[in-house]
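Hi all, posting the design record for the shared folder.

TITLE: backbone redesign
STEP: 1 of 1
STRUCTURE INPUT:
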């Protein structure tokens, strides 16, 4: 077993022959070294007692032997010793006995974890660090890692604006060389740096047919186009699985024009045709603040679509874009985040005002949408069995018109969402408006709500009461949500005396899961020597040693089927505005 592990996939006969050869050579070496040692001592003795008359050239011969002794004997012996040590380590250490194909799968799993739900820049560093650590463990791991093509499919084209400035061309070369024939994943984060007239552009052209995933983030459109165009010239449209394009201009340069930013406005026709073909085959499309040239059949094969930070001009332009989704019969996941459109009051009737169905749709995620956009969007898509998640912010009650931003009301909000079933509600730090009364009204418009997420919120006594489901005998219980999942992250219960209310609220729902992390507050009064009373807030972390926190954790563990405690500063739930790898 150990011999087989040492020599990999060679047969046992070959192994035994090598072991026998090593043992015989070692025995011969021992005899030769012993004889050589005896000869050296004899020569030394004779040279000091009875010098021969034929020794005139002997000092020079001895000098040459001393000069080459290290190269001829010492170094080969040292290398042999190192080889023996490596063989012993492989036989005695379990990690060396893992077959290369299993070891490479473990490496893939480590890299896959690095591609988790983290921002693009963080993912780059994590993946590079993971690869460096894998290759640095030992020569065996390095050999397996270097030879396993799947570890090198990510092509990180990153421009660093801090010294030493420049592109990660060396990393690109490593990936292009070591990935072999495996499909490549381009991840470019280039700010406003253009690769035109650089050698890297030629490499993208010659390897365009190998790319399966394209993800480009830039702060200028010309820089983004400079990376995308050379790939499009040789890409195989039907082989592209994902196209993700992110345009993040400096805030001072983002004019927020009355319409979307489009790629290749002045580009050659073949470029527009190429991106149209790629978009038509891609299963995953993600666009932030930029869209491909206008085309009607981009969404034939799309399964996952993300539209973020797009300014559509007026509602008619938005509806026209939404109507182009009507051919997306395979679409399962739709994310609409922070898009903007202006409400027009005198619009003619269009065919694309008619709602359309998305038969394969499983989930819609809506974040930071003005009230008029939310209404337009939910009116355009027919209701269905899909889950709709809504992240509300302070924009959620705003109506954007050409002459300014106007505040809507709760009734208008109810009308906007009434045609769809909201299954998940998310309230984070960007939602500061509601009091207990408005929260009660919001929940009243969502009777089918099954999950609610609070992130960086403060829940006071009134909020806990509002979240408590009325008794089944109450008339209002019919329209009040039955929550099966509650998530509280970085959230403060404003008074530790409200722990009983928290327990009552949780008990009133048919909870299946509770994810909770945050703290309680208590008001502490201290009387100064001059009889002046000072009040301050003391924070008690839910995961801390305070006896009241300990008792609360014990109660949650006993009464909630799936109770998960997270750190007080750990954000959980939806953080979809981050651009991911």
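Okay, here is what came back for every position:
SEQUENCE:
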């Amino acid at each position: 077993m150990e011999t087989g592990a040492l020599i990999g996939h060679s047969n046992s006969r070959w192994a035994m022959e090598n072991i026998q050869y090593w043992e015989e050579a070692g025995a011969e070496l021992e005899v030769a070294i012993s004889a050589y040692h005896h000869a050296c001592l004899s020569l030394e003795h004779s040279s000091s007692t009875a010098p021969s008359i034929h020794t005139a050239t002997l000092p020079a011969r001895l000098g040459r032997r001393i000069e080459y002794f290290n190269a001829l004997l010492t170094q080969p012996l040292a290398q042999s010793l190192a080889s023996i040590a490596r063989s012993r380590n492989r036989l005695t250490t379990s990690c060396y006995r893992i077959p290369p194909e299993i070891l490479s799968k473990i490496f893939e799993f480590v890299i896959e974890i690095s591609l988790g739900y983290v921002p693009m820049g963080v993912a780059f560093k994590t993946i590079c660090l993971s690869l460096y650590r894998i290759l640095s463990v030992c020569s065996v791991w390095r050999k397996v890692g270097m030879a396993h093509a799947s570890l090198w499919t990510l092509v990180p084209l990153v421009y660093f604006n801090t010294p030493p400035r420049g592109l990660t061309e060396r990393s690109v070369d490593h990936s292009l060389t070591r990935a072999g024939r495996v499909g490549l994943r381009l991840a470019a984060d280039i700010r406003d740096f253009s690769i035109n007239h650089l050698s890297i552009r030629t490499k993208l052209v010659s390897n365009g047919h190998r790319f399966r995933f394209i993800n480009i983030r830039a702060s200028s459109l010309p820089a983004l186009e400079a990376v995308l165009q050379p790939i499009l010239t040789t890409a195989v449209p039907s082989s592209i699985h994902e196209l993700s394009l992110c345009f993040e201009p400096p805030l001072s340069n983002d004019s927020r024009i009355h319409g979307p930013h489009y790629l290749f406005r002045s580009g050659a026709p073949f470029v527009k045709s190429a991106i149209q073909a790629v978009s038509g085959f891609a299963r995953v499309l993600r666009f932030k603040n930029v869209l491909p040239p206008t085309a009607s059949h981009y969404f034939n094969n799309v399964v996952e679509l993300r539209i973020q930070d797009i300014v559509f001009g007026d509602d008619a332009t938005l509806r026209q874009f939404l109507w182009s989704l009507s051919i997306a019969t395979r679409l399962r996941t739709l994310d609409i985040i922070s898009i903007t459109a202006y409400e027009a009051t005198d619009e003619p009737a269009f065919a694309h005002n008619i709602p359309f169905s998305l038969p394969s749709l499983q989930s819609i995620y809506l974040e930071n949408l003005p009230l008029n956009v939310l209404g337009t969007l939910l009116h355009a898509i027919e209701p269905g069995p899909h889950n709709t998640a809504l992240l509300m912010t302070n924009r959620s009650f705003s109506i954007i018109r050409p002459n300014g931003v106007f505040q809507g009301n709760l009734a208008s909000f109810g009308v906007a969402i009434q045609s769809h079933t909201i299954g998940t509600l998310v309230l984070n730090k960007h939602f500061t408006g509601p009091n207990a009364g408005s929260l009660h009204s919001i929940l009243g418009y969502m009777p089918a709500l099954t999950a609610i997420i609070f992130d960086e919120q403060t829940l006071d006594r009134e909020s806990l009461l509002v979240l408590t489901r009325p008794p089944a005998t109450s008339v209002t219980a019919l329209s009040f949500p039955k929550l099966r999942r509650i998530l509280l992250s970085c959230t403060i219960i404003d008074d530790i005396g409200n722990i009983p209310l928290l327990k009552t609220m949780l008990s009133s729902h048919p909870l299946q899961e509770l994810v909770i992390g945050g703290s309680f507050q208590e008001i502490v009064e201290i009387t100064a020597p001059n009889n002046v009373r000072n009040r301050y807030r003391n924070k008690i972390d839910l995961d801390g040693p305070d006896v009241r926190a300990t008792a609360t954790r014990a109660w949650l563990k006993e009464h909630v089927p799936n109770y998960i405690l997270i750190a007080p500063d750990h954000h959980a739930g939806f953080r979809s505005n981050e651009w991911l790898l």
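COMMENT: The CA atoms of residues 542 and 549 lie 5 Å apart.
Let me know if anyone wants the other runs.
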